[in-house]
Each structure stands twice: as structure tokens, then as C-alpha cells.
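Show me any protein, fold above all:
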Amino acid sequence: MAKSDFPSRMKTAYNLEQDQSILLGLAMKDSEPQEGCQIRLPLKTLNRHGLIAGATGTGKTKSLQHIAGELSLKGVPSLVMDIKGDLSGLAAPGEKSDGIQKRMDTIGAKYEPQALPCELYSLTKKGKGGTLRATVTEFGPVLLSRILDLNDTQASVLAVIMQFCDDAGLLLLDLKDLKKAMSFVMEEGKEAFEEKYGKVSGASTGTILRKVVALEQQGADEFFGERSFEVQDLLQKRDGKGVISIVRLMDMQDKPALFSTFMLQLLAEIYQEMPELGDPEKPELVIFLDEAHLIFDRASRTLLEQIETMTKLIRSKGVGLFFVTQNPQDVPGPVLSQLGTRVQHALRAVTAKDRKAIKTAAENFPLSDDYKTDRLLTELGIGEALVTGLTEKGRPTPLVHSLMCAPCSRMDVLKPAEVDALVKSSQLAKKYNETVDRKSAYEILNEKTEDRLAAEKESESKSSTTRSSRSKKTKEEDSVLEKVFESKIVRDVGRTVAREITRGLMGAIGLKKSRRRKSSWF
């Protein structure tokens, strides 16, 4: 098409009603802003997921911040995974500057700095905010097997053990409950378990136990337990604005297994709890996964399959997923193909590998007669991005070079005192930081063990008393017999000795007496 047709084509594709869309920025052509050609994305398509990518320092985090802020103002709550710790500024108003004012004037939008309603969460007790947890039972054997990367045999063993716990009324709340249940099945409860559920391989059970310990060493023992999070708490609104739930994960960068575990449980819980909506006019919840490569790095095949499946299914619940990462190639192809909205910031071509990655990234965008995509990807300035989305009818929009809006919230982190004040005033933080320790499998099985040991001790004590009594009686009998025996022996010996002494000492005398008697008899 002719160059002069560019503004009209972009207006047709992106200029939508304000109450049905969010504003991203202004279209650019040959690095020149196109006046009046604002770029808007329809709220209706944001449950079709999205990608925000770009090299370090190109502005992708600010794009995340802006989109989350726009959604909040439209009454859509968000859940944000804050890996680097630089998204807490969403809870404070932005600061005006000449640069920001000039940018917003160019875009044709009014800049209104404002704080957004936020809740802070953490996966460990070290983080500030409400501690998000989930129980082992809520995970279930299928998801837990995939997290532990178990084979089919091991997964079936885990399923049977968890079924045994359900039937026996043993709550599996945390990992120590699961480990105790497995130890019980392997040792003292083995006979009773096998009688009802059949034999299980000791090797499989041992492997599962080792993998549970390995997961525990990554800090999962703090994640599994109560109080488990409730999905409805992520869907709150205040004064018509959607609440932004910020999960602070600064200590998760070296714990990818725990992060992946949390994410899969979160998505599974949301999918299970939320009703089927199809394609609502606006999403019920949008989840932003910052530093998304941490989910996929070293992920097993089964884990990747689970993420892919959940990405496909959760859309119908009115939930959108936005993966935020440096390079689109960080996201597996099957997942990347599900992402309808793309906000691509600049990529850097430093090595041959980088140039290949840029070429691949360019090929993943719709074909464009307006831009040389691979070249433009390396020339984008800070706060600029290549954007494509979906129309309300699900068709891909034309690729457009966009000057991105500045977020209305603070583009910096909250100070420690501000974080403390936010957490202190939060009712949800108090709720999730409350210590809950119900009687579960660990305590119940320990009691059984203690009862068994006490019964064995009592039985042994009775046996010991009986043996002692018998022994005493035997000893008494032996003593009597010994006395009798000894007295008899003494008497016999005495008689023998006396006899021999008599014979030895008194033989002659006796002989004389006997002779004397004999002689007198006659």
C-alpha cells in the first residue's frame, strides 16, 4: 500500500473506544510520531495472553507497569511476579518530569500520576507481605508427580500413598506430612498398607522420598502448608480499581523448581476455582510473569507440557498470561504460539547468536510492508516497541512501531518504610501471616508410633514382670531345692567325711570296741 495510507490503516486497527481498550502509545513511521494515531488494545482480547520482551534497559518492565496500571484503572485486577524487586512502585504515584510530560503530550494523552491499590505477597517468611502457601493435598498426585519429575511407576505409587492418606483421614498439609506418610508405608504400616492397597516398590518409594527432600532443600518446605491462598483474594477491587497483587520473589532467582512449583499450583488453582466464562468483555484477572525464563530453564518435559496445557485452557476462565523476558526464544514454541499480544522492545546484536535470535524474532511477527522488522529491532529507542495484538474478532493487527506511554505509578521501588507501612495496613497480609498448624498426618502418625511404642513397652514390662515373677519363683524353688540339696549333700558329705574320719582316727578304737564287744558277746 502507499505510504500515505499508513495512518488510516493504523487508526482502523488500533483506535478503539476508551472504555473498551487500554492505551499503549502512539504509532511511529520512519522514527516519526504519527499524530492522532494512538495504539490501543481491546480489553476483550487480553485473555488471549501476551509477551513483553526486550534486552535489559529497553523499557519492558515499564511497559509491564503501564499495562498493569491501565488494567487496574479499568477495574481489572492483576497478579505480578516481581523477580527483581522493582515493581513495588506500582503502589506509589509517579513523578512528573519534563521528559515524561513531553512524551505524553506527543502521544496525546493526559499524564495523571497516581498510586494504584496493591497487595504485597511472598513465598517465604523472609519476604515482606502475606505469605502464599498451598497444601500438598491441594496439589494432588498428578501435579506433584510432574513437579518431582516422576516416571509412570513412581507417579502411581505416589497416587496410591496419597489415596491411602485420604482414606485414613490423614491430612497432607506440608512436606513433613508427606515424608512421614511415606516412611510409615515403607516401615511400620507396610503390612496393613499392602493388605489393602497392594505391594509398592521400595525402590520407587525411596526415589520419591529423595526427590521430595531435594525440593524441600530449595525452600519448598516454606511454601507447602497453611494458610493456603484463596483465589478470590486475587480478584479484589477498590474504589472501582482492580487490585494489583505483587508477589515479591527476589530470593527465588536461584530456586527455579520452587518458582515453577508455585506457578503451576497457582494456575491450577485458578483454573479449578474460577467459572467458565468463554470470551468476556474484559478479563477477570491478568497474570504477569516477569523473568519468565526462570519458569522454563531446566524445566522437565512434563513440566513444559503442563504449562502449555494450562496456557491453552485458562483463557476460557477469563484469565490472561503475560510472559515478560529478554528474548522471545526464552519461551517454548508451543507456548509462544498461544500469545496473541506482542510488545517487543529492542534486541541487541552483539554476537552471531544474537543476530540469529533477532532474525527468528522478526519472523515471529506478522509480515509488514511498513518496516524492516529485523533491522528495526536493533534500532528501537528506550521506551519504544514493536506491537501487534488481536482485533475483537481475533485477527492479528498490523505490526506497528510504538512510542510507549509512561506508567502513572512510580518508576522506582518503594522505600523500606513504605513497604512496612503497606504491609502493616493490609488485612490480607495479617490473614496469610497467621500461624495455622492443624493436626495432620505427621502428628497423627507420630502419635500412632508413640502409642505403639508405649504398648510394646507396657507389654514388655508385663512380660518382664511375669518373667521376673517366674524367675523369682524359680529362684525360690531353686533356693529351697538348693537348701534341701545342699543340706542333703552336707549331711551325706558330713556322714561320709565323719565316717572316713571315724575310720581314720578312731578305727583302732572302734575296732577295739567292736572287738571288745565281740569278745564280750561271746
